[in-house]
Amino acid sequence: MQQFDLIVIGAGSGLNVSSAAAEHGMKVAIVEKGPMGGTCLNRGCIPSKIIIHSADVAEEIKSSKLFGINAKISSVDFKKITSRASNIVDKDARDIEEAIIEDKHTALFKTEAKFISERTLKVGKQTIKGKKIVIAAGTRPLIPNIEGLSNVNYITSDEALRLKKQPKTLTILGGGYIAAELAHFFGALGTKINIVQRNKFLIPNEDGEIAQKFTEIFRKKYNVLTEFNATKVSKKNGKFIVVADGKKTKKKLISDQLLVAAGRIPNTDILDVKKTNVDTNEKGFIKTNGYLETTAKNIWAFGDIAGKFLFKHSANLEANYVYTNAILNKRIKVNYDAMPHAIFSSPQVAGVGLREQDLMQKKIHYAAGRYSYIKSGMGIALQDNEGFVKIFADKKTRKILGCHILGSEASTLIHEVIVAMKAGLATDAIRSAVHIHPALSEVVQRAVNSIEW
Fold it and tell me: CA-based diameter of the chain, in Å?
């Protein structure tokens, strides 16, 4: 049995911890079955944003008449779009692996891991034990229990990013952010889209008004079935057939491809974490305290598998704390203040802080401001008729409680608010700051100016 000072399970943000530990001279083991870089690099945020940019370009071309330009798309080289993304991320993954192999303090085990006893893992045919262990093994697509689904060759987001042939019609099961982004990618390039969503709105975890408006916009472009459940899936003559039941009606959807985007589940069952006395919650995510310690001594967990936030940027934040607490032997609680997120669909969506429904539920006395893109100079230039910013502040302190944006460059615009919230600044900081005119960021300032105290 090989002994290590530290074992890191998962080569995504876990590499931030393993590389720092190796620099300290610790004997480190990294366990990762797949390519280096984790979900974000290989199956998530990086390749998806590369291919989504092609969709953004296509959408701009389609709307060119609005700006006095008569342009059209003559053809789409779909294989080139997905291959470009795959080639970029595959090279990065190989480069990371080569660097790990060259590190004299680090051993790489490219195989599936399973706990067999306290801080002891079976990795392939070998057994390894760590004085300390960090679990950052992420999640995988959730596959719902639908009649016939297991008998057809559906795809998840993992395969969708590497498809070589564009489907003429695509049915998507699920209406969260993954479904929203991939619907935009395929739809903007010409695929007919069906979306089956059990909730009343798409992206239901967003602020209620944002989710409602987003759903309204998507309905104009795609066949969106909300408050429907897929009850049966089959395949005939190369076509997928999905039966979806609504409250009053039943629909039959036929498509060339079927994408399951119904959420994510943690990989704790594959790891069999209970063998090392690590407790999980009812959804299978690892229970951690404010220091990212698990219920087992000298074992930490972070990232998607811990289920606090399922974002790459939150995992990177947590990695810094795990490094401080596990490697430097300090105990500092994670500060999640002003944790933002964005959906890179069309329109884009971004948010930070509390949603309006949260404020109402918590009975917080808040003031609200709202401003439409189209009322600003750049909003007019972009012809963004749907975009808006809404912002909430405490009525007494005037500190920002939350901000939610739908529209062009939402993922960028939100950062002004993130910085203000992280610094604990009141709305006056944004109100009094000189904003470049007519930059799109004026919509954030004007949303603040519109707050009714």
Answer: 70
Contacts of 270 (CB under 8 A, 6+ apart): 112, 114, 137
pLDDT tens profile 3-17: 999 999 999 999 999
Burial-class residue 389 by CB neighbours within 10 Å (0-12, 13-18, 19+): buried
Within 10 angstroms of residue 255's Cβ, the number of other Cβ atoms is 20
pLDDT for the residue numbered 241: 98
Bridge partners for 402 per DSSP: 353, 392
**Closest by Cα among 186, 180, 15, 193 to 103:** 15
Q: What is the 8-class DSSP label of residue 241?
A: E
pLDDT digits (tens, 9 = 90+) for 203-228: 999 999 999 999 999 999 999 999 99
Residue 124, SS3 per DSSP: coil
Quick one: the chain helix, strand, coil %, rounded to 5? 35, 25, 35
Taking the C-alpha atoms of residue 313 and residue 315, their distance in angstroms, rounded to an integer, is: 5
H helix runs in 63-115, sequence order: 78-102
Task: Report the alpha-carbon angle 138-15-343, nearest 5.
Answer: 50
Q: Convert the pLDDT of each residue in 337-361 to its tens digit.
A: 999 999 999 999 999 999 999 999 9
pLDDT band at 307 (very low <50, low <70, confident <90, very high): very high
Q: Where are the beta strands (DSSP E) in 205-249?
A: 223-226, 229-236, 239-245
Quick one: angle between helices 410-422 and 442-449, nearest 10?
A: 50
Residue 61's φ and ψ, nearest 5 degrees, are: -65, -40
| Residue-wise pLDDT tens digits, 315-345 | 999 999 999 999 999 999 999 999 999 999 9
State which amino acid sits at residue 105: H
Give the sign of the dihedral formed by CA 73, CA 349, CA 318, CA 304: negative
pTM: 0.96
